[in-house]
Structures are given as C-alpha cells and as structure tokens.
C-alpha cells in the first residue's frame, strides 16, 4: 500500500492555483459564472437578469426565469437514462428498508401532488410538514414544490407549542404528520403532539396523516378528527400525473425556522432558482459528485442540512441519497457504519457532535465494517476539534478521504466556506474550513468593520450576495435587514455586508477558522438554540420570575444550555421544582432545548439599564475573570451565581 498523503501534510505552503482561478473568475464576473452553472438545470424560461441588485439587501437571482424544483430533482433524470436508478434508499430504525428508483419517486411525487391539488392547494399557499425521517417527507416536499406550494418542515423533535408557533407564522392551511415515529426502539406519538398543536393553530383546515408506525407493527391509538383529519392512503389516487408548475425563480420554495437572539424563531425564506443553483453547485465543488455516488447525510430533514444535502442536492444531481430513520447508536454504535457498508456509501456527511459520540464507543465498532467505498467525509454545524477530526480522518476514512469541514447556515442555503475537492483539494488543517467557495466574498473584520489582521479573532462577513442566500424573513422584512445587514453595512456608501454572527479568524495562509457564535445563540449537538427562547420558556412557568441561559462547553455536544433562575415570591428552590422546570422546557420547546442544569439564584447580574449580563454569568460559570464590570448594577449578583454553582457541586 502506498501511503501517499493526499490531504495532509498541513505544513506545506501551497498555492491552490486552480481553485484560485475559479474563485477569481467567480468574483470578477459573477453573473456569467453563475449563469453557466444555472444552465445545467432546466428552466421553462431563461432569466432576464442573473442578479437584480436594485433593492439591496433584497437581492433577487435569475429574475424573469421560470423553473420547478420537483421537475429538476425528478423528471429531468427520466430522460437521462436514470429511471431505474435508486433515488432514495431508506433504512428504518428497526432495520426495514425501502428503495425508490427515480421512476418510482416520480410516480409517488405525482400521486402526492394530486392529493394536494385535490385539497385545493395551489401556488402561493403554504403547507407544514411534521414528519419523521421517512420517504413520505421528501416526497411531500417535492409534491408541494411541483405545485409551487411553499412548504415548511418542522423538525419532529419539536414540541406542540413550537409546532403551533411555526404553523401560525407560516399561516399553513394544511398540516401533514404521521401516526408516530420510531426513536431508540420507542414510538413517538406525533399525531397526538400535532393535535395539541392544532388547538393553538386555527389556520389549519386539513390534516393528512401518514400511516407509519402502526403500519409497521406498533400498537398505538390514532385519533382522527372527522372532517379535518385524513389518512394519506385514503386520499392517494392509484396513479396520477400532475404537471409541474413553472414558478418564478424568486418564488419561495420553502420557509425554515431557525433560532435567533429573541424568543421568536425566524422564518428563513429561500427562493426556488437561486437556492437550487447554489445547492447544485456546492454539491459539485464540495462533494465532487460522480454519477454513481451514494450519499449519506445523517442530518434530519427538519434542518437545513437535510433539505439541502439529503433531499435537493443529491436528487438534483441524479445520485442516490440514503435516509436513515433512527439514532446513530441504536441498537448498537455501529449502526451508521453498517449502513455505509451495506449500501456502499461514497459521500458521508455528519456533525462533529456525532463524531465525538461515536469516537467514545471506540474504534472497534468502525473496524467491524468495510468502509472502503467512502470517498469524501463531511462535517457541519459547529467547529470540529482536531482530535475528532483526526479520528474521523484516520479511523473512518482510512486516511484516504478528505474531510470537508463545511461552514454555512440555514440562511445561506448551502455550503459557503469549505474545501472543494471537486475543484481542487488544498492541504487540510484540522479545524479549518479552508477557503470560501467560488462567488463567496468572505472576510474577517474587526469591531469597526475594518479587515482583521491574520491570526486575530474578528467577525465573519460576506461582502456580496450569492445565489443560495435567504430572500427575507417570512412576514418580517425589517427583521431581515436588522439581523443580517445592519451590523456592518454602509448603505450611504452603497456597501451591503452580510453578518452571519460568527466569530472567525484568518491565518497567514488565508485559511478561515470559524470560532463560534458571536450572538446569544448556542449550538447544542450542532443544533441552533436561542438562549432567549429557553429563557422565555422558563419564564412562562408560574414559579419563574426571571431566567438567564448560557452555553456551557460539553465534551460531546459542544455546548449545553445552563439556566439561572430567579423564583417568584412564594416559591422555594427544590429538586422537585427543578425537575418540573426541566419538564416544562421539554413541553414548551422540545427535548433538544432542555437545560443540563438549573441553578436557583436570588438575583441575576444586570446592567444599570436592566439587561441581563450573560457574558458575565458565563465567565463565572467557566471560572474565568468576568472582564469589564463597569456597567454591572450590583456586584452581589455575581456572588449569588458563585454560591449557586458551589452548592450544586
Ligand atoms: C451555525 C449555523 C448549516 C448547517 C447546520 C447548521 C455553526 C456551521 C460550521 C462549521 C464551525 C459551524 C455556525 C453557524 N457552524 N457549520 N463547519 N464550523 N461552525 O445550521 O443551525 O443554521 O447553524 O452553525 O455558528 O452560524 P444552523
């Protein structure tokens, strides 16, 4: 065996010539560059203009163009000889499997679209999906897109309240859910959670229920409300043809809710044309797509990673996407490796938190399997620590596969900063996402917006629009401008700069290192949670007067939320109350938001104007010096925090 290092060593000074050239071309003439890529998709009508920047920061891509996402992800391949190729390989947690060829997917998408059409839904309507990781979810997404119905997928781990909030904001008329889903051998009764949500979501007229767990042997009771709820199988025609509706490139394909710095989730709106082009391009650059690739992206479709790299990315390229329903370590810690071996996965994409968890079980679980089909390994969602990176590279990838550490966000639609083996692989440095992709004008700036010198921490910014960018926040264009464009733009000079709210650093080689969130958002097991959301969940409990939530570093999850709570008069701290609050957060937001610890304090550190100083709480929690305290109103509040931490030990 030759052990020629393809991706390391990292020390070598290296001039990535081809990559440089492509990046240069993209920045010099973005319209021509992106038009060339966009032409690889099929348009019903070609755009009049690649980028309309007449009303920044409301940029519009491929304006005048007419396209359909479902047509490009499915129908287009039938003419390319791919009818019998596996589009979706699905594996259930109990080990059952389903395979849908492109032709079968085409038939299903048409049948599902007929159901939506028969319910009277049409272009401009919105629909909400609250489904587990089963093929019906991507089929419904494609069916909605076929008709120009804007969909919003709500992660099936979210609570009834979180679901209701999203349905209400999106004003969805129809909700699609399932009787339940499997997780770690247990049934999660989704329809019951949905029923609870529907009491708070009056816009929903119709509920479609997929028979999932009860069709697979689970004995649960599934109440249907007459006149509102229907089993999917009773609505599905035996066969149907529904013509794809050509929609404007700027027509919203989907809304996806994500956490911000306030309690209210943000409805990120993605376009059809720009989004598809970006996902299509990044698949090529980052994953170096080949016709017989089998891609296993482990993300749930309820997150953007699942939208872009379980569903649209692979299907736009006509490759096979693997969907797995359950937990990575259930029934055993080699569940994913078993799947990789069984289906000959070539591209594997996951999050650092999962790598760290699987690493803990030991390498024998990986070694049990033949993983020689793997070609590219990806990571996303949070910074990856070098130890996990090396394990991934060595144990999983057998030192053969480049690790693509991909930085991006719900808002960016697709990958933005990452190695690009599809163009040219540069030497990798564990923990760095390397260079921005073509067309991404990223930089690191200081507080005042001036470029940061190499080696210094600053703020990541994107200095020009890219096709995959969000169009706006659903129903709240002002918040869109405020959140992403206010911090560093200089509208009077015609400068519009996108602010992702991440700390970053560039090194001497120009490599980007993403260092974590610069706002009050925390990343728990790769998921984005607003500390304000958890705080408002806590405060909605009658016992809680005030709450402050901060992220505490965790060896597996990256960060976990920790809460400091001031009780109302008449309530006293107890183990029982602590437990009750934990359950309350679980009910309000869902299991991923549950605090790892709750501390009772008499008061919280605040500024004189009454703002909670989370930065100070975090410093005390980490045993660090709290830094500038000139605005702190009452020093005693810090002793309070210290005392609470002490008692907890
Ligand atoms: C935030 C976005 C986009 C898919 C999953 C998360 C963090 C994302 C990386 C990375 C360091 C990363 C950032 C970003 N993040 N990828 N490779 N290295 N940090 O999407 O929930 O919208 O979260 O995840 O903080 O802003 P999201």
UniProtKB/TrEMBL annotation:
EC number(s) on file: 6.2.1.1
MF (Gene Ontology): 3-hydroxypropionyl-CoA synthetase activity; acetate-CoA ligase activity; AMP binding; ATP binding
Any Pfam family: AMP-binding_C
Keyword entries, A-Z: ATP-binding, Ligase, Nucleotide-binding
Reactions catalysed according to its record: 3-hydroxypropanoate + ATP + CoA = 3-hydroxypropanoyl-CoA + AMP + diphosphate
AMP-binding enzyme C-terminal domain: residues covered: 533-611
Family matches, as PROSITE patterns: AMP_BINDING
ATP-binding is among the record's keywords: yes
InterPro entries: Ac_CoA_lig, ACAS_N, AMP-bd_C, AMP-bd_C_sf, AMP-binding_CS, AMP-dep_synth/lig_dom, ANL_N_sf
Similarity comment: family membership: Belongs to the ATP-dependent AMP-binding enzyme family.
NCBIfam families, per the entry: Ac_CoA_lig_AcsA, PRK00174.1
Protein name from the UniProt record: Acetate--CoA ligase
Species for this entry: Pyrolobus fumarii (strain DSM 11204 / 1A)
Lineage: Archaea, Thermoproteota, Thermoprotei, Desulfurococcales, Pyrodictiaceae
